[in-house]
Design goal:
By secondary structure, this protein is an all-alpha fold. Helices cover 92% and strands 0% of the residues. The protein has one domain (3-112). The longest helix is centred in the middle third of the chain and has 81 residues, at 32-112.
Length: 114
């Protein structure tokens, strides 16, 4: 799930929870004063929960970004190492090929008596 999708789901969840809590308080058999206190208390709790969720989401995104950055750096280093090794292997193969050509050339020259 993408981070903005997760944020939308979390926001919808919090909003739904707040609406549900307010409706429950409005239908509870108590005085208006108590109902207003309960609504304010619920609103503060929902706000606190929302802030905690936002902080957790930001931490999760930052951790993901850091892990991704580290992994990409590792892959780049591995690629550079492979590239260097591949270059060394190509040079070694060319040198071996050149030696084989020189050896064959020498045989041909000797065979021709030149």
């Amino acid at each position: 799930m993408r981070s903005d999708d997760a944020a939308k789901v979390a926001g919808a969840f919090l909003l739904g929870g707040m609406v549900g809590a307010v409706i429950a308080l409005l239908y509870a058999p108590q005085s208006g004063r108590d109902t207003r206190k309960d609504i304010a208390k619920t609103a503060r709790r929902v706000k606190k929960d929302a802030l905690e969720l936002v902080d957790e989401t930001i931490d999760t995104i930052n951790n993901f970004a850091e892990e991704t950055k580290d992994r990409v750096s590792e892959l780049i280093e591995q690629g550079a190492e492979l590239s260097t090794k591949a270059k060394e292997d190509v040079v070694k193969t060319l040198e071996q090929g050149q030696k084989a050509i020189e050896k064959q050339k020498k045989r041909v020259v000797e065979g021709l008596g030149l």
